[in-house]
Amino acid sequence: MSAVFRTLIFTGLVPGFWTVVLPYWVVPRGSRLDVRGVGAGGWLLIVAGSALYLVCAFWGFAIHGKGTPLPLDPPKKLVADGPYGVVRNPMYWGVACVMLGEAAVFHSLALAEWAVGLFVCANVFVLLVEEPTLKRKFGAEFEEYRRRVPRWIPHIKGR
Question: Contact, 150 vs 120, CB < 8 A?
Fold first, then answer.
């Protein structure tokens, strides 16, 4: 089975849970989508976050890295360019942006709280599992990447 297909399955199950199933459970029935003001900003976050996730998961991990976002089936190559050249964890940013956008669109504090909770858990996972695993797997290549690219706050250099 190709890495793209495996990534598609992962995307439906994991980010799909956080961005589709969870809002379905959390947002009260009969809630209306807001398309003005804060809601319009939410739609922008949803589109931008979705695009960021898709680029990272499919172009970055599946095509370039020959793996998936699933920790049990990770990329075979260190993915360090594209969005990963700006920040080390752009895929988490993408999912968080979608969730925060949905919170804005539905005016849901509960969805915003879930997004913050997911981001906190992702940080713990990155610190305790992902980074030690990448260090063991890619050694000096990951260490150089880690020195060059920030974990969470993008550092965009002037040209």
Answer: no
pTM: predicted TM-score of the whole model, two decimal places? 0.91
CA nearest neighbour of 151 among 86, 99, 70 = 86
Q: How far apart are the first and last CA of the chain?
A: 41
CA distance 53 to 61: 11
- 138: number of CA atoms within 13 Å, CB side? 19
Q: Average pLDDT, whole number, for the chain?
A: 93
Q: Identify the residue whose tokens are 């260490």.
A: 143
Integer Cα distance of 33 and 114 in angstroms: 19
For residue 29, what are the CA distances in angstroms to 95, 101, 112, 136? 23, 18, 18, 47
